[in-house]
Amino acid sequence: MSPVFAGSEPVAAKSGKFKGTTVLQDEQNRGVALVNALTDAQRGEGSPQEFRRQATTTSTEAWKDNVVLDYTGLRASEMTEAAARAAARTRRALHRQHGRRDMRA
After folding, report:
1. pLDDT confidence band for 52 (50 / 70 / 90)
2. pTM
3. Are 45 and 27 in contact (CB under 8 A)?
4. Where are the domains of the chain?
5. Inter-residue contact 72 to 50 (CB < 8 Å)
6. CB–CB of 42/80 below 8 Å?
7. Within 13 A of 26's CA, how many CA atoms are on the CB side?
8. Which of 2, 4, 38, 40 has the least C-beta neighbours within 10 A?
9. DSSP character for 40?
10. What residues have CB less than 8 Å from 72, skipping those under 6 apart?
């Protein structure tokens, strides 16, 4: 899995045509459950040092668009059992949501 951050502002419509609509709440809940299931050391392993140190980092930009990044992150096999289950639930939910039933979950 790769972390993907998407959002909406506001995340919940309190009035108007879309009153009662919430955006990405299930995805947020699953992501929070996964992060909370990791140990402190695993949270650090899952975050590239460069990104933890800087508020913003640009790896690609004009004339630098074919960059090759080294692997970084935490393998599911290295996660706690609870975190690995949370990751699997998140992956399955995303596959269902996006019609990717052909992928192993």
Report:
1. low
2. 0.60
3. no
4. 1-68+78-105
5. no
6. yes
7. 9
8. 2
9. H
10. 48
